[in-house]
Amino acid sequence: MSRLKKHLPADFLRDFLERSLVLLPPGAALYVILGSEAEAAAGGRPERYSPTCPDNLSVPLFFEEGPPACLTLCLDGLSARSSEDRLAWRRILDFLAFSLHAASQAESARRAIADETLQKYRELALLHRSVFALNNTLRLRDTTRALLEECREGAVPADMGCVFLESGGAFTSAGCFGAPPSGLDGVPASRLFREVVESGRGEIVNDLSRDPRWAGETPDIRSMLVLPVLSPVRLVGVLVLASREPGPFKAAHLKHLSTLASVAGIAVSNAQNFEGIQVLMEALLQALAEAIDARDPFTAGHSERVASLAAAFAQVVDADETRFPHVTFSEEEINEVYYAGILHDIGKIGIKEEVLTKDTRLPEKLLEIIGLRLELFGSCADYPWRKAYERLRAINATVTPSREDLEFVRTLAGTAWNVEGRPVPLLREDEQRCLLLAYGNLTPEERHEIERHPAESHRILQHIPFKNGLSRLRTIVRQHHERLDGSGYPDGARGEDILFQSRLLAIVDIYDAITQERHYKPASSSQAALNILRDEARGGRLDRDLVELFCENVETVCEQASYMRFRRRRGMPDGSQEQRQ
């Protein structure tokens, strides 16, 4: 009965033969014979069938495939009946055979419909699964990886596969599975590949050795399925599946993969467009950051360095299992930290030039006027003005004047001479105010002007609708000068109100500022910068665990940051994903 299942259901055939016996004389037996063996019987058991019995009557059964078949009536012991009876029984057999043939055709049609329905269901299931898998990301490498994974795990008998993406008429591998170390890189050089690209139609070659379009461009493969991956407007790539054995691919595989390729074409095109926009956005942001840095030659490259340091440090935090076992950064979050670093000083575009680039306590021209004032006073009062002026110039350029220097300024400010009956001080009130600063060269008003830049950055960035994992970028930028004890600016935020990413960015911002030369100070060593960071952490202003992790891994962070900058300047991926893996 097992060989008849493809033609007729077993229950139907058994019932049909049993019911047919009522049309035949008592004691008769019906057999369905395939080849020389009985596969089904009624009125007797299949093993009792004897093909040599002279009283048998047989008529052929016409099944679509398989060995020859017939319906046999066994008349053992009924041979004395008349020839008219035997003719009637043969006519009954012809009718029964015709009925079985019709039932077989109906079953074949039912199975064909079922197979077609199942195939449609599989195609719909594949479409549903592939739409989700291929469009679950807008990153090109993830899209091609999902396409190859579907091919590798699907019902296609391929030993290896590769996706080639088109760019400027050339095809480069975007990922492979099961391929040798050299991959399938030689395939695009074949005439077979070029003809598939030109025609836009997929092809199966089950014996490459017999195809004149194949010259062994990739060794060790005997058969290949080549399928163009098309977007709605152009060819974006080619899917190549190969086998080391001849003959595994069928038309159904090509049809199955055509459904997959139609989805993949749209997904690849979307990913390429998205990555193109990302590249353009990054170039624009980079150009903007460079324009800001260029206002002050001493800060040139600061934003790019801080961005790469922040991204590299975020990777170190992500890998740490001691201090931050529960802190993880996705690739999107690392990109967000990077872009925050690029844009963290964008608000300086609204800071006055004379404040932003101020490198002495008093401008040079104003100091020259004071010098003329001292020279005039010296000529009238026999005062050693030249020596006083030189000391004043030195104080004007220092970051931290000594107590003696400050006392000298106060003495000078208290000195005046009589000009036409009114006293004229050697230093005006605003001048002595600048010269008496205990640290740096900015007055409280000028420092407030500088401290506006994080809030100004936030205001400028409000005009950019950051999405796709960049939703916290503005907050990170706004908070990069906040301190845990509330002593930072612009909002005086403290503790947990400050984002973790902002604390991280603050550390690398301070580190870069200390280790680079500025107009008001020389560059300090890395160790000096680390000492300052630790002092700030001990004072409760910076995150102590983050500072210690940075200090322990500063060489790794700086090395990885340099690698990122190198790759980005050449338009290459920054390599952060490979480092994380």
β-strand percent reads: 5-15%
Superfamily at the CATH H level of the largest domain? Hypothetical protein af1432
The CATH architecture assignment of the largest domain turns out to be Orthogonal Bundle
Q: Give the CATH topology of the largest domain.
A: Hypothetical protein af1432
Tally of strands: 11
Arithmetic mean pLDDT:
85
The number of distinct structural domains comes to 4
Report what the structure shows.
With 581 residues, this protein is of the alpha+beta class. The protein folds into four domains: 2-111, Beta-Lactamase; 136-269, 2-Layer Sandwich (Beta-Lactamase), CATH 3.30.450; 294-353 and 451-580, Hypothetical protein af1432; 364-441, no CATH class. It has 20 helices and eleven strands. It has helices at residues 10-20, 83-135, 140-153, 191-199, 251-293, 302-319, 331-343, 353-356, 364-381, 385-397, 403-413, 429-435, 444-450, 453-461, 473-478, 500-515, 526-538, 544-552, 554-569, 576-580, and strands at 29-34, 37-42, 57-61, 69-74, 160-167, 170-177, 203-205, 223-230, 235-243, 416-419, 422-425. The strands form three sheets. The chain has a five-stranded antiparallel beta sheet with strand order 6-5-9-8-7. The longest helix is centred in the first third of the chain and has 53 residues, at 83-135. The two termini are 57 Å apart. Mean pLDDT is 85; it is low at 577-581.
Describe how the helices and strands are arranged.
Layout: H1 10-20, E1 29-34, E2 37-42, E3 57-61, E4 69-74, H2 83-135, H3 140-153, E5 160-167, E6 170-177, H4 191-199, E7 203-205, E8 223-230, E9 235-243, H5 251-293, H6 302-319, H7 331-343, H8 353-356, H9 364-381, H10 385-397, H11 403-413, E10 416-419, E11 422-425, H12 429-435, H13 444-450, H14 453-461, H15 473-478, H16 500-515, H17 526-538, H18 544-552, H19 554-569, H20 576-580
Antiparallel strand pairs: 1-2, 1-4, 3-4, 5-6, 5-9, 7-8, 8-9, 10-11
Helix pairs in contact: 2-3, 2-5, 3-5, 6-7, 6-16, 6-19, 9-10, 16-17, 17-18
